[in-house]
Amino acid sequence: MMLVVVIPAYNEEKTIGNVIKDIPRKLFDNIKILVIDDGSTDNTVKEAKKSGADKIVSFDDNKGLANAFRVGLDTALDMGADIIVNIDADHQYYSEEIPDLIQPIIDGKADIVLGSRFKGQIEYMPKRKRLGNILATRITGFLIGSSISDAQTGFRALSREAALRQNILSDYTYTQEMIIQSVHKGLRLIEVPCKFRARRAGESRLITGIFEYARRGGLTILRTYRDYSPLRTFLLIGGILSLIGLVVGLRVLVHFFLTGAVSPYIPSAILTVVLLIVGFQIMILGLIGDMVTSNRRLLEEIIYRLKSEKRARA
Fold first, then answer.
1. pLDDT below 50 — which residues of the chain?
2. What is the phi/psi pair of residue 160, to 5°?
3. 260 CB contacts (<8 Å, ≥6 apart)?
């Protein structure tokens, strides 16, 4: 069994060395450490090499966490990974907990394992970040119809099969998109508790502002859910608009039956018609989107088989 630990890094020269050194190499017969340098302008690459990284992939400029994660998965698969662990380079997660993270995959109980900070121990997390994590997690849990405690965690493990089935499209963050995708593809996902340190060097490279993160992260969640559940999404939106139209038009209808006239409710009658027409059109979009999703499933299956054949030949 080959384990590849992927570390996306952007200007983390002060901490990446500790992340790599803390990885319990002696517990594994075959383990490789892969660093994805996301266009760092400091000594991140130098520190990674000095600390024992087996392979480093460097971008010419900063492409974002989602791109780094996507390249990390593809490169790890090319290296022959049977299990892939992703861990952040800021040394907030404990590399020593990797054996606990991958054990459910080894035991055949899971395809993806999330290290949950909220089930484990959090040394320190700013209130606004904690609130944002909880909110995003609850939204993600609601959309997948399952209770999870930490959708934002950057400490996660994937089996080879699960990694082959990932198609991350976001250019910002992969965390929620990966979970929503995986659940829709029938992959088994569980959480294990993990510890989380206070950040001791610099500030978060991803969350530069809570409102910007909420906007971009929220759009990623909505787009992913829309792409995988278009019928439910558009039926819900169209149904709500149609229901509002019916409620608005109720008094118009009652007045018409009593008096035989629409006035003085002409504006309400126009609004009712508009809402019903728009609602119906949106529901039609849901049917079209559902057909597109069927084609998407076929394309993703083709991509999965091509990836599998490519790695098998390698």
1. none
2. -60, -45
3. none
